[in-house]
Write a structure and sequence with these properties.
- By secondary structure, the chain is of the alpha+beta class.
- About 30% of the residues lie in helices and about 20% in strands.
- The chain contains 17 helices and 22 strands.
- Bound molecules: adenosine-5'-diphosphate and magnesium ion.
- Magnesium ion binds near residues 29, 32, 33, 93 and 98.
Length: about 575
């Protein structure tokens, strides 16, 4: 084919595809416009996942009659005057492309009355062409109705997701706006049924209930405003207590300067802040508003404005991680005494963490919503994990593995092995923080011969081994003399201890994962912890529970598995049909 310049309407459709890739992006653009117009009420209607109908009505300032047609010209905007303005955009829109793009791929009706004018006006556009204009009586504000989206772009239609997926996406989108604009009353009707409503009373906590549900919202902890490490970057919002978690990261909701954004790297910062507090494969719930000077954020990188670019990404990353970590630690009651906590936020952002965050950043953060997924407190009868431990009275042991205890809030079942692991682990870290040497058991010297590959591992890791109280020295070719072992493993065979450690060494060091030393510590604690199947006396159990109460993170073992289950008296009563 010869080279030709494309017709205008073809150009319009191609550009439209970038701005409005799916029905949810139409909703996003229209809501952006309503918010930019200072609306206090935004009513959204969607039918058939947005393909049949999307309507967004607001009570904002409206569009002057003389400007109404102009609003549909590409690159016509009232929000940007010069290129310099791009550096300090305060509005959500700025390109002047959305209305033109949406109109190019649908049948669009707009009704608008400017607040300083007496009458309103309406336009009907088909495939971007105005086919009808009229004056109408209407209250101040604007409504845009979009029908038959993408009907003239068959290629786009083919790639549309199911109406169900689109509905979820739209609900999540509107929820996010409700969080970042609690002073705006949002309603969302999906196929003529109300699916979401926020009160618009300006209280973020109320929006939180509307978006997350009362159970989850109740378990959220307020983040910040923290004494800023970096004055320019502020982090504020809510994160879930470790007892509330989900199977995916779709409820890590992030906002940058009032704009919902997807940023896998920042999402990772949040997850990282829960390090060892959540089980593997479980994710926190978070609603975080990050604000920084507009000139440090580039919002003009993504056609659908879903992503932003930071001038100092690493600083933003660590601001988020620290704010969340500090919040979680404070919430623990932080009974760590002088010297600070072993899990204090300042130890966290190292190069490995940062690099890992950059590699996850390449994966999409928001896969389609999964409906199977529920936050833990959703199911009333399920035993729950409380946030911190009250004083418990030991009642007995089950299966030589679980301790049954009673507390003010009901019944507790404690996994003795996991609980002991947690206790040993925190003791270990505490000593390390205080820079005490690990207590160790000196031995007369046991020798062990190893294959060459393992021998070289030992040689190259001697520093880390010493740090955990394990001293070995070469004793002939591939043979070692074990000089000491960690004191907590005193009743273990020295050779067994070294073998366990070797296994850990063999798993190698992956960037971004916990350091080898941390893994060795966890390994030793696991080995040392009382095994399931060990009968314990009442004193021993009581001692274990007391120590667990004093840990900073009593709810999970160092590997992130739960240490205990809790059933409240109310739950017990319900289970017995007493309610
Ligand atoms: P942008 O938002 O990037 O300026 P749009 O194509 O979304 O571009 O909108 C074009 C212009 O139409 C806006 O700059 C604004 O002046 C006007 N406009 C659009 N929607 C509304 C609305 N809901 N209320 C008031 N003005 C609006
Ligand atoms: Mg816009």
């Amino acid at each position: 084919m010869p080279i030709r310049v494309l017709e205008d309407d073809v150009i319009a459709r191609i550009a439209a595809g970038e701005v409005v890739e799916r029905p949810a992006s139409v909703v996003r653009e229209l809501v952006d416009n309503a918010l930019d117009a200072g609306a206090s009420r935004i009513d959204i209607r969607v039918e058939a996942g947005g393909q049949r109908l999307i309507e967004v009505a607001d009570d904002g300032h409206g569009i002057p009659a003389a400007d109404l047609e102009l609003a549909f010209q590409r690159h016509a905007t009232s929000k940007l005057w010069s290129a310099d303005d791009l550096d300090r955009i305060q509005t959500l829109g700025f390109r002047g492309e959305a209305l033109a793009s949406i109109a190019a791929v649908s049948r669009l009706r707009i009704r608008s009355r400017f607040r300083d004018e007496q009458t309103g006006n309406t336009l009907l556009l088909e495939e971007g062409q105005i086919v009808e204009r009229a004056s109408i009586g209407s209250p101040p504000g604007t409504s845009v109705t979009v029908e038959n989206l993408f009907h003239n772009v068959p290629a786009r239609q083919k790639f549309l997701r199911s109406p169900l997926a689109e509905r979820r996406q739209i609900t999540l989108l509107v929820s996010r706006y409700a969080l970042v604009r609690p002073q705006v009353r949002f309603t969302l009707m999906l196929d003529n049924r109300e699916s979401f409503r926020s009160s618009g009373n300006g209280v973020l906590a109320d929006s939180l209930v509307a978006v997350l549900g009362r159970d989850v919202a109740r378990d959220m902890i307020r983040v910040g405003p923290h004494p800023a490490i970096d004055e320019a970057i502020r982090v504020f919002g809510f994160v879930s207590a470790p007892a509330t978690h989900r199977s995916d990261r779709s409820r890590i909701l992030l906002f940058v300067n009032g704009r919902p954004v997807q940023d896998a790297s920042l999402g990772y910062a949040v997850i990282q802040a829960y390090h060892t507090l959540l089980m593997k494969g479980r994710f926190p719930v978070a609603v975080l508003m990050i604000s920084l000077p507009p000139e440090q954020v580039d919002v003009n990188v993504h056609p659908a404005k879903a992503e932003v670019r930071f001038q100092r990404p690493r600083e933003v990353f660590s601001a988020v991680l620290r704010a969340v970590r500090a919040t979680l630690m404070e919430d623990r009651g932080s009974a760590s005494g002088p010297g600070g906590s072993a899990l204090s936020p300042r130890v966290l952002v190292n190069d490995a963490t940062w690099q890992e965050s950059q590699s996850v950043a390449r994966k999409p953060l928001f896969a389609d919503e999964q409906e199977t997924d529920r936050a833990v407190p959703g199911s009333p009868a399920a035993p729950q994990r409380p946030r911190s431990l009250p004083m418990l009275r030991v009642i007995g042991q089950i299966g030589a593995s679980f301790i049954v205890a009673e507390g003010p809030a009901g019944m507790y079942l404690i996994d003795q092995h996991a609980a002991h692991e947690r206790i040993l682990y925190e003791n270990f870290l505490e000593r390390q923080e205080r820079e005490e040497s690990m207590s160790q058991l000196t031995l007369a010297g046991e020798t062990l011969e190893l294959p060459a590959s393992e021998a070289s591992l030992i040689v190259s890791s001697q520093g880390q081994l010493r740090a955990i109280g394990l001293e070995v020295e070469p004793f002939g070719p591939n043979t070692f003399l074990i000089r000491s072992i960690p004191a907590m493993l005193a009743d273990h065979e020295p050779r067994e201890v070294l073998r366990g450690v070797l296994e850990e060494l063999e798993r190698g060091q992956k960037p971004g994962k916990s350091t080898l030393e941390q893994r060795l510590i966890r390994r030793v604690c696991k080995q040392a912890a009382v095994k399931a199947g060990t009968v314990l006396g009442r004193e021993e159990m009581q001692g274990l529970v007391r120590q667990l109460e004093r840990t900073q993170s009593p709810l999970t073992c160092p590997h992130g598995r739960p240490t205990l289950l809790h059933m409240s008296a109310g739950q017990l009563a319900r289970e017995f049909g007493r309610h």
